[in-house]
Amino acid sequence: MVAPLVSDVFPLPAGVAPIRDYDITTTCRTCEQKQSLGNPDGVVRSDTETIYNCKNGCGAILKVAEAEPFAGKGGYRLGDWTIRNPRDVM
Hints:
- The chain is mainly β.
- The protein has one domain.
- Helices cover 4% and strands 32% of the residues.
- The strands form two sheets. The chain has a five-stranded antiparallel sheet, with no helix packed on it.
- It is globular.
């Protein structure tokens, strides 16, 4: 099993069009540039997490990882997964 994309873990009401990664933006904490998560070259997936990297090479801008009980600061738990390290997600 491969960890999901961020667009796969957002719950949506019935009848709402599916969200796609390129519809979601966040801001890199290092270079301060707002960017879409739809850059396929910047996504690294494994069994336990999906990492979205800054398009400028700064490092991870967002991670989708297996949820831990009592997820720490800076993350959102969505079912069995946690979105970590987002500065903002729109």
